[in-house]
Write a structure and sequence with these properties.
It is built from seven helices and no strands. By secondary structure, it is an all-alpha fold. The longest helix is centred in the middle third of the chain and has 28 residues, at about 55-85. The relative contact order is 0.10.
Amino acid sequence: MEGACDKEARSITRQTAERIGVREPSDLLGALAFRDVTGTLTEEDAGRAAGVVGSEEQTRYAAALSGYEKGVNRRYAHFLQEFAPGEESECHTRLLAAIISGDVTGLGAWLDERHGPGTFTGLFRTPGYFDPGLTA
């Protein structure tokens, strides 16, 4: 889950920036990049990023930043809100533990307890997941 890993990386970056006193740049593109890496982009920022005018590289970067925010980070936040309302942090922690350890037992049981049997399998595994004919 790219969104889970990115959320955690941005949290670590935000805490580090706060601890060592790195401040948000004053220029638009610098501010957007800072907010991106610290996880503080707003929906308005994502829209502003898509409209950044500059060099071709800057314009492509801003468009990619906006697309990634909408396509990965916002979707992950929506997933947490939908499947763990009021428990988003707990779900995120369990999901990260499953990603890092490779053991999905705890996450699966937690989701199944809240949403019924087979929730994990239905969300994260394609119908052919257990097909012995699949090759890596």
